Automatic annotation (TrEMBL):
TM stretches of this protein: 21-40, 60-80, 92-109, 115-139
Pfam families reported in the protein's UniProt record: DUF6198 (PF19700)
Phylogenetic lineage: Bacteria, Bacillati, Actinomycetota, Actinomycetes, Micrococcales
Key words of the record: Membrane, Transmembrane, Transmembrane helix
PANTHER family in alphabetical order: INTEGRAL MEMBRANE PROTEIN, INTEGRAL MEMBRANE PROTEIN-RELATED
Source organism superkingdom: Bacteria
Name by which UniProt lists this protein: Membrane protein
Length: 226
């Protein structure tokens, strides 16, 4: 192995470790951010309004419905020709299994929360969600189920990201609200703030793309001795 090949291998290993750590940290923080906003009671994130409504109607836990919804959304990828990555699977499993324990831990807080505390909890959850998105998307290991649905529809329809995302969120919020989910100022604040927040954190946290490999340059043969 040449010196260049050894350096390249060490760089690749460090990059892989960073990507894995970012992915796990990102999806863990994502679950925490969901729980914070839900517990605040000031209105949930758009998809979580639907999750709350379904949980209310079925009697299943929030995490169980989150997991089931993610699987259903993943099935919608098939006709859109989207391919899941490791990050997609981690997003489904970690968030689905972690959000219920975090919600249970938050139940130890005073109930009902004073309004300033509820507002602060919702704002913290929204900011953490932007950070979590920057971490797991910046790891470049695959989008979450809902992001993949959006990008797949954008690719298939030719419509703008803003139009497709807004259309999806209007549908899920409306359905969730009808089913009994919580809609409030935090729902709107999330819809307006998470894009800019995620963009800022992505600039700071995105793992640089790996440069294409180039063959080691051949060493010149020594000149023959006259």
């Amino acid at each position: 192995m040449t010196a260049n090949a050894g350096t390249r291998a060490r760089t690749t290993a460090r990059r892989s470790v960073r990507r894995g750590a970012q992915l796990l940290g990102g999806v863990t923080l994502y679950a925490v951010s969901i729980a914070l906003v839900v517990h605040a009671g000031q209105g949930s994130m758009p998809w979580d309004v639907l999750t709350q409504g379904l949980a209310h109607r079925t009697g299943l836990s929030f995490g169980t419905v989150t997991l089931a919804t993610s699987v259903v959304v993943l099935l919608c990828w098939w006709p859109l020709r989207q391919r899941p990555g490791i990050g997609t699977v981690a997003n489904v499993l970690v968030i689905g299994f972690l959000v219920d324990p975090v919600l249970a831990a938050l139940d130890w807080l005073p109930s009902p929360l004073p309004l300033p505390a509820a507002v602060g909890l919702a704002v913290l959850g929204i900011v953490l969600n932007g950070l979590a998105t920057g971490l797991y998307v910046g790891a470049r290991l695959g989008p979450g189920p809902r992001d993949g649905l959006m990008t797949g529809l954008v690719a298939r329809t030719g419509r703008s990201v803003r139009l497709v995302r807004t259309s999806i969120e209007v549908v899920v919020v409306s359905a969730g609200w009808v089913l009994g989910g919580t809609v409030g100022w935090a729902t709107l604040a999330y819809a307006l703030a998470v894009g800019p927040l995620a963009q800022v954190f992505l600039r700071l946290l995105a793992v640089p793309e790996q440069a294409p490999r180039t063959a080691d340059a051949p060493r010149p043969e020594p000149a023959p001795v006259a």
